[in-house]
Specification:
By secondary structure, the protein is an alpha/beta fold. The chain has helices spanning about 30-45, 45-55, 65-90, 130-140, 145-165, 165-175, 185-205, 210-220, 225-230, 245-260, and strands at about 10-15, 95-100, 105, 110-115, 120, 125-130.
């Protein structure tokens, strides 16, 4: 992604060092950043990857603090980009807070660990993210790249939109059972579509690079319920789907990307997902 000119969001609640930290702190100096950016331009390497390589020996966790801090800056700019999109598309848009944590966190929706993955809590209108998930996305799920990470952030902001318009509450109150066509799956697929709407707008503002869309589609495919179940169980059980199949997640992200219109994201009215 091209985010050099993108403002960073001020709606970041950084709790990575407020307890429960598992990694040593390494200052991210201006000199280090400049050096990494220069090398990135020359070699074409992802600057986040270079930072990780430079600081790999310092970490006591899964990634270095320097790379962690660079990822935090990246996330704050992606969040700022989503804010710019939804302010334009939804006048009066109320911005969420994105909480960065390490290992474990307490929210209005209860206590959670990094194993839960990124999540949005309607109770406090905050999205929660352990940056180590991006490493997991690349290594375990085979979906590397900065835009794959951006897609994850944009998906959680999609849930914020659903909270603002009451969709989340309607689904919660419906008591619908789990399954491939459940209300919960439709909620998740709509969030994927909203992420695509944001990507459409970011592309129009010149923030996407060649290969970015492929990274997002790969991420959507990698974390589809059927793909995850095949990896974990060796078989697919559609009645236990919570987020939608790989094909569905990719399809709805692309629906938002192609249209740039939130009205194209009515998964609840769709007869076929």
């Amino acid at each position: 992604m091209r985010l050099d000119d993108q403002r960073a969001s001020s709606n970041i609640d950084d709790r990575r060092r407020s307890g429960g930290g598992r990694r040593a702190s390494v200052p991210l100096t201006g000199g280090v950043i400049v050096l990494v950016l220069v090398v990135s331009v020359i070699t074409g390497e992802n600057p986040l990857t270079l930072l990780s390589q430079l600081s790999g020996g310092v970490s006591t966790g899964s990634s270095s603090s320097a790379a962690d801090d660079a990822s935090a800056v990246f996330v704050s700019k992606v969040l700022g980009s989503t804010e710019d999109t939804w302010r334009r598309l939804r006048p009066g848009y109320r911005e969420p807070t994105l909480v960065l944590f390490r290992g474990e966190v307490d929210s209005a929706c209860g206590f959670a660990t990094a194993a839960s993955g990124p999540f949005y809590c309607p109770g406090d209108h905050k999205a929660y993210l352990d940056l180590a998930f991006f490493d997991e996305l690349a290594r375990r799920f085979g979906a590397p790249g900065d835009f794959a990470a951006a897609y994850v952030v944009a998906h959680e902001i999609g849930h914020h939109l659903q909270s603002l318009d009451g969709t989340s509450r309607l689904v919660h109150d419906s008591g619908d059972r789990a399954g491939a066509r459940s209300m919960g799956v439709r909620l998740e697929l709509q969030a994927d579509c909203y992420a695509g709407v944001w990507a459409h707008d970011a592309k129009a503002r010149g923030q996407l690079e060649a290969g970015d869309v492929d990274e997002a589609l790969q991420a959507a495919h990698a974390i589809g319920d059927d793909t995850l179940q095949k990896q974990g169980r060796g078989r697919v059980v559609p009645d236990s789907f919570t987020h939608g199949s790989s094909a569905q997640r990719s399809r709805w992200f692309k629906a938002g990307l192609d249209s740039g219109d939130p009205r194209a994201c009515d998964t609840f009215a769709a007869s076929a997902l």
